[in-house]
Each structure stands twice: as C-alpha cells, then as structure tokens.
Amino acid sequence: MRKGRKKSVIAGLFASGLRQLRLNYAFLIIVFLVGFVGLYIVTQSQFQNAQLAGSEVAARLARDLENQGMKHQFALDNAARAIDAMKKENAAAARITQWLEEYLVYMKQSLDIADTDIYCYVDGQLLAGTYWEGDATYDAASTQWYQNALENRGEVAYTDAYIDVVTGNLVVTLSRTIDNSDDVVAIDLYMVDKNRGSDLESLPEGSLWTIYDAKGTLLSYAGNHVDDQNMGEEYVSYLFEEAQQGAAADPESYVLDPQGRKQGIYSYTTDFGWVSVITIPYAKLLANARLMLFFFSGVLLLYLALAVAAFLLQRASEEKNKQYESVIQALSNMFYAMFLIDMDAGTFQIFRPAEDLLPKLQQSDRYEHLLEVIESVIHPDMEQSLAETFSLENIRKLVEEDSNGFGGDFRRRFGNHYEWVNIQLLFDKALSRGQAILAFKKINARKVSEIEKNRLLQESLEMAHRSMDSRNQFFSRISHDMRTPLNAIIGLSGLALREGDSQEKNTDYFRKINDSSKHLLLLINDLLDLSKLESGGYNFKEEPLNLEHQVQQCVELFQEQLHDQNKELTVEIQLKDRTVCADAMRLDQVLNNLLSNAVKYTSPGDKVGVRLCQLSGNDQDKMVYQLTVWDTGKGMSEEFCRRIFVPYEREERFGAANVIGTGLGMPIVHTLVTQMGGQISVESKLGKGSTFVVTIPLRVSREQAGEREHEELSTLGQQEDFSGKRILLVEDNAINMEIAEELLKMHGLEVTRAWNGQEAVDAFENSPPGYFQLILMDMQMPVMDGCTAARTIRAMAREDSGRIPIIAVTANAFSEDMADTAKAGMNAHISKPIEFDVLHKTLLTYLDEKAMK
C-alpha cells in the first residue's frame, strides 16, 4: 500500500514535471519567437531613430555654419550702406580703407566674427581692411565673388570654396553690390578650424560629420574619436557622391569606410546648396540587436539545460531595454522635450516629456490639448504667434509645400521665471506619412547673448549716425568759415583793382587781404591736423630747446594784439631745468591754440595769464612740467566742458559766428598732449573765464640749447646780397612762379625758369658745372614730379649734381612728405604759401660758401 502510494506520487510528480517542462518549452518557443520579432522591430526602429537623429545633427551643424554666414551677411549689409554713404560724400580711398580697418576690428570684438577679412572694389580700385602687397595688381573684376555680386545685384551671394591667395586657407566669400552701382563689398568666411570634435560627443564613438559646398569641396568636419585614416580625400569625396545620389534616404542604407566597415549615412542640404553628412558605425547601430540575439540564444541553452530560463530572460530583457533607452537618449539629448505628432488624426504621443508639463498631459491625446498646455507656459506676448505658427492648418500647409521643417524662438516659463527656448517641427522621410516631431531645446544663454549683441550693434549704429550728424554740421560750418575770408580776399582784390582809388585805400585793402589770407591758412592748417588726427597720430621730433625761451617767444606773438585790445597779460615762469628735449613745433602748436582761444573769448579789460612751472619727476632724466593758460573772459558751460576735446564740437553761445575757428583746436591739442605722454584738463564757468592745465613729462637735456640758437642768429646776421648767384626755379603755376621770381630777384638773384621736373632736369644737364648755386623745386607737377626730378639730378655723372642744394617747395606740410623729399636727395623743405622770413633764412643757410662746398 505504501509502495503503491509512493509510485503514484512519483508518477504525479513526473507528470507534473513533464507538464512543467512542456510549458517551459512552449514558453521558451513563444519567448524565442517574440524575441526575434522584437529584435527585428527594435532594429528597424533603431535605424529610423538613428536616421532621424543623424539627420537632425547634420542639420544642426549645418545651421551653425548658416548662422555664422548670417552674421557675415548682416555685417556685409551694414558695410555696403556705410561705404555707399561715404561714396556719396566723395570720400577718398584712404578714408574708406581706414573705415574698413576699423570695421574689421569692430566685427571681431562686437560681432564675434574672428576668422574673416573685408574688402571692396570701388571705382575700379581694390580697398581692403587688411593690407596685402598684391592689392595693387589683383584683378578683382574677374573674380568669382565680384561676378556673383553683379549677377545677384542687391542680394548677398556666396562663392564656392577656394584657396585664398593671401592666407592659403580655404575660404568662402560673401559679396554684394553697393547701392545700384557696379561697386562691390565682400567678406571672407574662413574655414580655418575644420576639426570640431566636441560637437559629436552625443553620438556613438566613431561617428563622423562632414559638410561640403555645392561642388563637393570639404568645408568642415567633426569626428567623435574618428580614426585619421577615415579622412582620406577619396573617402571624403565618396561620402559626398553617396549623399548626392540619395544614399541617406533609406534608414538601413550604409557606406563602406576605407577599412571596409559599414557606416550608416544621413545627410541634410542647406538653402544655398551646402551638403551636411553624418556617418555612424553600423556596428554601433546593431550592437543592441546583436547583444539581444546573444542573450536569447543563451536563454534557450539555459532553458534546455536547467529549465529556468524565464527569470534570466526577464532580467536580460530589462537590461537590454535600458541600453536601448540610453542610445535613444544619446541621439536626442539636444532636446529637453519631444512629441510625435499625427497630423491626419490630430493627436500626439509623448516621445520625451517635459517634466513640468507631465502632470497636465497624457501619453497620447489631442494635439489641440498639447498646444493649450504649451500656451499656458509661453510668455503672453508670444501666445498668438505660437498658436498661428504651430496650428495643424499651418503645419499641413507646410507639408504640402514640401518644407523640411520650421520653428521659432519663444520665451517660456520655468517655475517663476522665463527662459528662451527653440521650438522645431521636424519632418523626415523616416517618419510615417502625416507624422512630424515637435522638439523643444533650451537656448537661453545663446539667445540672451544675441539680444545683447544686437543691442550693442544698434547703439553703435546710433552713435555712428550721431557722429555723422556732427561731421555734417562741422563741414557746413567750416564751409561758411572758409568762405568768409575767401569772400574778403576776392572782394577787397576787386576794390583794389578799381581805377581812381587812393594809395591809402589800396594799402588798407591789401592789409585786410593779408589778414583774411592768414585766417584762411589757419582754417586749412586745422583741417590738415584733423587729417593727421584721424589717420593715426602725429610724428614727433625731439631736440634740445630752452623751454623758457620757447614759451616767451610764443607769448610775444600775442602781446601786441592783447595790448591793442586793452587786455592785460601776465606771464609767470619758475623753472630749475630749462633745457629739455621736445618737439618745438608741437609745443608751439599747443600754446598757440590755448592763447588764441584766450584772446578770442575775452573782452577789453579782461586778463589773460600764462604760468609755467616745474614739478618733481620720477626719473632723474625726466621731469614733469606744468603749463597753465587762464583768462577772465566769457567762459564755457559745464555741459560743453565735457565735450570740448571731441572733434567737430563747438559751443555757439557767444556770437561764435563772428569768431574764426573750426572747433578742432582743442581736440588737436588734446591729441598732441596725450601722444607726448601728458594730460590736459579744463575748468570754466560762464562769465567767469577758463583755465587750461597741461602737464607733460619732458627729458632734461645736458646739451645747451643756447648754442644752437647762437648758431642760428649768427646765420641770420650774414649778408643779404646774393648778387651773381643763379637759381633754377621749378614751378608749374604761373602766379606762383611770378611771386617766387620777384622774391628771389629782390635778393639780387638771377632766376632761370622751368615749368616741370623734366624741364628742370634738362636745364641742369645742359648747363656748365657750377652754373646754378641752388634749385627751388615744386613737388606736384605734370610730366615729371619734383621727387623724381631730384633723384634724376642726383644720379647725374657730373661734379656738382651731388652737392647743389635742392629745396622742396610744396603745399604738403606733413612730416612724411618731408621724409619723401629727404629720400629723394633734397636738402630742405619750404611750405606754401612761402613766408618771406623763411625763404630769407633758407637762402642764407644754403648760398654761403660753406654750404656750396
């Protein structure tokens, strides 16, 4: 009985085990079939998601370059407007070149455009922000960028990539015409930093991004731990050809890299034809599928051996799902929320949820409800725009137009504050018909930065407009001020020419003509100094001088004028070290401007004072000197005191229309003092007068300036009769020739005329050696200019060609003009209009026997 029960129990257990085994086998087969089906579905889904994410990454990286191009377009449009304005003002080429240099610095500092260059082709001349020695011979009119600009007149045109002849780097040029002319401005977009590997950290290792222009030239690339072997020229060209032939259209399409490994390929084409390509190793895409197959096979073996596969299968499935989610997360980590939209059904599914909206949303619901939830957190000012942009009606319309996608930037509430987000609606062939992805990306830092840059740019434009208005007002005023003495010169000359006027009247007319001419020369000198001010500064020549004597000499020029106007002059000088190294002309220019203003803006009975003292210095060889010019005159408003050193500014309170001036004196003084290492300040009150304080460090000289002064005075004491001396006078203007000839004949000189440089060369060459004792040479003449003529004479093979004094006579008074004459072999420089004293001193210096030897 017991044995029978035992057998039946064993049989029952065996039958139960057999049934369990059969259930396990059935469960195993079901799981096995479900696993393979699931593996296939997961693989297909993985391919589709990889294509979607890869295409989006390709599009994002391409858009980064597009955005860079947009900044260049914005800068190019502003440059075109500015150059057009300068052209309308007849600005010189040098002024446009200077503006291009300043604008290039502005682009780098304010617009964050680092690797670039800007240039323009205006009136047949190439002008550039960066100097290149080939500019003069460069045929800009035949270039692709110039022709593109003419073909797309008024619009920005892109060239294909090419190697820049200056830098040797790959470059794409943006160009556009200026106004309706054939003049063109262009900006280079350099492709210097090709490797941008950090941009692909979200993709699997071994992923590669390349971008080409429309002809297939590689513009840039990025790699996530990509083997350098994969960047061969043949492989790069191969990727472009495959993308052009539609290889990226199929989610399962692939290409073979140089090592024969499969690479998934995805592409995106920009609006102006650039092609962005992403490749992801096939092994990475299929890694999960292969792992799942391995685990399912292992589960089958375990079930066959141990019949405990259910638990292990469940654990393996959970592990694989986590890895799969990690891959999806890696591909979509650029967006903080993603929704799959079914436009036909009008529904949505949550692909990646926004955490703060999750309580208000179901996994799947009506699309209108999703829009309502989004509108609840969008800034009120943008609700209407969001509703219109992302309505189902507008989305269907864009799909019908075969748009690749669209989006916009919106302010969105996170908790108690708003941040900028970018909303993109993406269409792709990898999605089912009527499906799209609504993706949200945080861009607050970038957007705030863009808004700030736009604000700064707007402020810069407004400042430029204000500067232009001030400049226009200045030129209007200077035109009036220059015409005033010119009118006096013309009118008084006409009166003097009338018959019947007495000698006394004519003498008065000529005195007034002389005064008006000096006023006009003063205005012209200010304009010349303005040119130096805007072109980068002045050149200083340091030489020993007696500072006390220099100041006294300058003050003496105003003593008679102040005495005639019944104004009191006070001079105080307290110096220990009187001999210093400085530029005497620039010091005179500073003091002359300050004293001239003091005389202009004081009335009879007022006081004018000059005080010069020596302060302590930090260097034994360098001392600090303080020059103060004060007056008890009309003074200035506090508001104008803050603008007195700004070019073109001028206060119009005290009958300034009757005061000769340009409004440039104080800016010029400020620039001179600053470049000499000093400082200038002003204190003034209306009706109380003004005080200007100049502090300048000067090097104390051990050489006695008095010795040089003595040499000059001894030269002036020499004879004034130059009878028997012959001078070759070279001048192309008849009136100037007559004036100079009369001045020379007054000194007993014999004059031979030459009307251009070539005539001067011929006259000297055909004369006996030693016939001429001096040559006065004009600079700007037809046929041959003065410098060329001087070099030709110096190069002649005759005994007097190297020692005859050649004196330059020119209206150009800049130090670099003097340097040019010195290089040409000239001995000295006289500025027009010729002053009697200067000419006399020059003749005494170079017509004595020592000079001739």
What does this entry look like structurally?
This protein is α+β, with helices and mostly antiparallel strands. Among the domains are: 337-442, Beta-Lactamase (2-Layer Sandwich), CATH 3.30.450.20; 452-534, Helix Hairpins (Orthogonal Bundle); 543-707, Heat Shock Protein 90; 718-852, Rossmann fold (3-Layer(aba) Sandwich). The protein has 23 helices and 29 strands. Strands 18, 19, 20, 21, 22, 23 and 24 form a 7-stranded mixed sheet that branches. Strands 1, 2, 3, 4, 5 and 6 form a 6-stranded antiparallel sheet that branches. Strand 21 and strand 22 form a beta hairpin. Helix 1 runs parallel beside helix 7. The longest helix has 87 residues, at 2-88. It starts with a helix and ends with a helix. The relative contact order is 0.05.
Outline the fold blueprint:
Blueprint (H helix, E strand, L loop, with lengths): L1 H87 L4 H18 L5 E7 L2 E4 L15 H8 L5 E2 L3 E2 L6 E8 L6 E7 L17 E5 L5 E6 L9 H12 L9 E3 L5 E8 L5 E7 H4 L1 H20 L2 H24 L4 E6 L4 E6 L11 E3 H9 L7 H7 L2 H9 L4 E10 L2 E10 L8 E8 L1 H54 L5 H32 L8 E4 H18 L3 E7 L4 E4 L1 H17 L6 E13 L2 E10 L6 H4 L23 H11 L3 E7 L3 E12 L4 H12 L9 E5 L3 H13 L3 E5 L2 H10 L7 E5 L7 H9 L11 E5 L4 H9 L4 E4 L4 H11 L2 H4 L1
Helix pairs in contact: 1-2, 1-6, 1-7, 6-7, 11-12, 13-14, 14-16, 19-20
